Amino acid sequence: MRGAFIMLLLLGAAFGSGCGTSDPPQPETRSTADSLLDRYTTVRLDADLGALDDARRGVIRLLVEAAHEMDSIYWRQAYGEAEPLLAAISDPGLRRYAQINYGPWDRLADNEPFIAGVGPKPRGANFYPADMSVEEFEAAAEENPALESLYTMVRRDATGGLVAIPYRAYFEVPVLRAAEKVRQAAQLAEEPGLKRYLELRADALETDEYRASDMAWMDMKDNVIDVVIGPIETYEDQLFGYKAAHEAFVLVKDLEWSGRLARYTRLLPSLQRGLPVAEQYKQESPGTESDLGAYDAIYYAGDANAGAKTIAINLPNDADVQLQKGTRRLQLKNAMRAKFDEILVPIAGVLIAEDQQANVTFDAFFGNTMFHEVAHGLGIKNTVSGRGTVREALRDHASALEEGKADILGLYMVTTLQEEGELDASLADHYVTFLAGIFRSVRFGAASAHGRANMVRFNYFKERGAFSRTEEGVYRVDPDAMRAAVDALSETILVLQGEGEYAAVDSFAARYGAVDPQLAADLLRVNEANIPVDIVFEQGVSVLQNAGS
Ligand code: ZN
């Protein structure tokens, strides 16, 4: 599974607006630009580098410069040259919107064009010639497998035939500039793991051979600075999903939270023994190896910075590296904070009872998200009924139920750790914030798998009286009932996974996954409140605190 954007969906940022794709382009008017721009709110990515030494701050400045090169490459992959398009847009608001989208198509509205006269977005973006058919490509690829490479642009030669041009050649100037900056950063880096990774990554950018650097990235353990740079995800290629788009994240590790995560991961065996379910469903031993870290993001570029912003990374994608080394999961704390402040709190302001709004806290939001990640390690991977692995037995229901398990067992972990004195937290904060998070995730409808999974939790909690709806149409959590409902839903899901009976999961999803009509009506009030859909960043060395010079 290509992993980086799973959490983006979990946090509900990227659901489409429901606009049709067949509408004609919008006229270029000021009000159109304003209403489009209102869907994003601008936040500063201003991590404080005061605790870092001069060498590390120098590494960060170089990596931000390298990351910046990913922007022009990504423009050419997604659309074409940026400057002629931007120069032709007279309305400054629409020009800004084109920069946010890296092209003239709206990423929050199924890539609908928002510039007059622009046609629909090609499904293969600009990775392939616009006039190429699927049949033509497939026939040519039989002769020339390089056309299907993750790391080539497909173009026509002088005779009209299809040719594969390696990224290192097609994007030679920005690629060489980025590699040079990464190599300079390697020279300055003091942590051996980081130094080695940066050296190999610079080579990878120049050769389009990424595996060795991915391996080195998996071996990094004690680095404070991290960077993801190069062609990574293939979502931009909607035609075949072959082509990786360039992007970058420059990151600084949150040592305190990463340490806490490592500690909670080590507590997994005792938490497993305490799961509120019969013995046979908790026989497996959870892994206590943690490759989960908390980071502050300093810079997003290219694919990572286009449209809705991801707040978690799960890489690498190379299946061979995954088999040998697993993956690393990185949670981007300041980006989460921005979405919490700008989106979740305003939603809670509309739908949570006034006397519980103070219980919607960032610590609880971040904690719930982190415990969700750790909680994937709890429960069992194999059915107890002879149906093989849970994943095989539950097929298309497997992923949604596993995510539902992690959500509810994350809350079970918070509850248990708090009651055992391991965690200094307010359960009311975690519960109320959890409910507000459900509202955020179903804001754009329960049609997606993730929206449905949230409806299951909502309806299950409602049935157990975990919250009530007041006459004013706002929701109030009953912490004691919620605590009991957490145990009950945990048990229900663990048994469904342990038995692995497909039909039982199917009827569970049908029973609880339906949209509550009252909630649907209440969510209309959220939509009327003009709460932003996502965030854009004011970012770069100039906005960092204590970045040095
Ligand atoms: Zn998950």
How do the strands and helices of this protein lay out in sequence?
Blueprint: H1 6-10, H2 30-37, E1 40-44, H3 54-78, H4 82-88, H5 92-101, E2 105-106, E3 112-113, H6 134-143, E4 152-156, E5 162-166, H7 167-170, H8 172-188, H9 192-207, H10 211-219, E6 225-233, E7 245-253, H11 255-266, H12 268-273, E8 292-302, E9 312-315, H13 319-325, E10 328-332, H14 333-351, H15 362-375, H16 390-419, H17 427-441, H18 449-463, E11 467-469, E12 475-477, H19 479-499, H20 502-512, H21 517-528, E13 534-538
Parallel strand pairs: 1-13, 8-10
Antiparallel strand pairs: 2-3, 4-5, 6-7, 7-8, 9-10, 11-12
Helix pairs in contact: 2-5, 3-8, 8-9, 9-10, 14-17, 15-16, 15-17, 16-17, 16-18, 16-19, 17-18
Bound molecules: zinc ion (ZN).
How would you describe this structure in keywords?
two-stranded parallel sheet, Fructose-1,6-Bisphosphatase, Chain A, domain 1, 21 helices, disordered N terminus, 549 residues, 5-stranded mixed beta sheet, binds zinc ion, alpha+beta, 2 domains
Note down, in words, how this protein is organized.
The protein has 549 residues and is of the alpha+beta class. It folds into two domains: 1-38 and 86-120, no CATH class; 46-79 and 125-136 and 167-543, Fructose-1,6-Bisphosphatase, Chain A, domain 1. The protein is 50% helix and 12% strand. The strands form five sheets. A five-stranded mixed sheet has the order 6-7-8-10-9. A two-stranded parallel sheet has the order 1-13. A two-stranded antiparallel ribbon has the order 2-3. Helix 9 (192-207) runs antiparallel to helix 10 and helix 17 packs across helix 18. The protein is globular, with a radius of gyration of 24 Å. Zinc ion binds at residues 372, 376, 403, 406.
